[in-house]
Specification:
It is a single chain. With 154 residues, the chain is mainly β. It folds into two domains: 90 residues, Immunoglobulin-like (Sandwich), CATH 2.60.40.10; 33 residues, no CATH class. Helix content is 11%, strand content 36%. The strands form three sheets. It has a four-stranded antiparallel beta sheet with strand order 4-3-6-7, with no helix packed on it. It has a three-stranded antiparallel beta sheet with strand order 1-2-5, with no helix packed on it. The chain has a two-stranded antiparallel sheet with strand order 8-9. The longest helix has 17 residues. The radius of gyration is 22 Å and the shape is elongated. This is Growth hormone receptor.
């Protein structure tokens, strides 16, 4: 009986790996965002256009298709400034004509993950007599995608 239950558990987790899943949605600067997904192991879904990412804003009545499947790369949907509303919740779902594979809801402010800073430099200012402690000065520039003039990223 234990062997049968173990086999059932394995097949269930294998099934989960087979289905396409939304892996993340990310906004680098609160003005645009992208959602990414994995194809899973279902081979008949690998043809371009077979899987669609649909989205809906809180007050919408109908699901709409991804506005841009190209800009953010393979298995992604990019929402430029025309499609991004910062304080309005979104729901996104991966689907084909017959079924929904995955669905997530969020607001853009919850998915902000800025690009890393550039030109990172540090200078050793002094060290303690024992050499164990030191003071350093760190300098960096914001990433090119950060709109620091508007104050979204400080």
């Amino acid at each position: 009986l234990a062997l049968v239950c173990a086999n059932d558990t394995l097949s269930t987790s294998d099934d989960l790996l087979r289905w396409p899943q939304i892996s993340k949605c990310r906004s680098p600067e609160l003005e645009t965002f992208s959602c990414y997904w994995t194809d899973g192991n279902i081979y008949n879904l690998t043809a371009p256009g077979t899987i669609q990412l649909l989205y809906m804003k809180r007050n919408d009545e109908d699901w709409k298709e991804c506005p841009d499947y190209i800009t953010a790369g393979e298995n992604s949907c990019y929402f430029n400034t025309s499609y991004t509303s910062i304080w309005i919740p979104y729901c996104v779902k991966l689907a084909n004509k017959d079924e929904v594979f995955d669905e997530k809801c969020f607001s853009v402010d919850e998915i902000v993950l800025p690009d890393p800073p550039v030109h990172l430099n540090w200078t050793l200012l002094n060290t303690s007599q024992t050499g164990i402690h030191g003071d350093i000065q760190v300098r960096w520039d914001p990433p090119p995608t950060a709109d620091v003039q508007k104050g979204w990223i400080t």
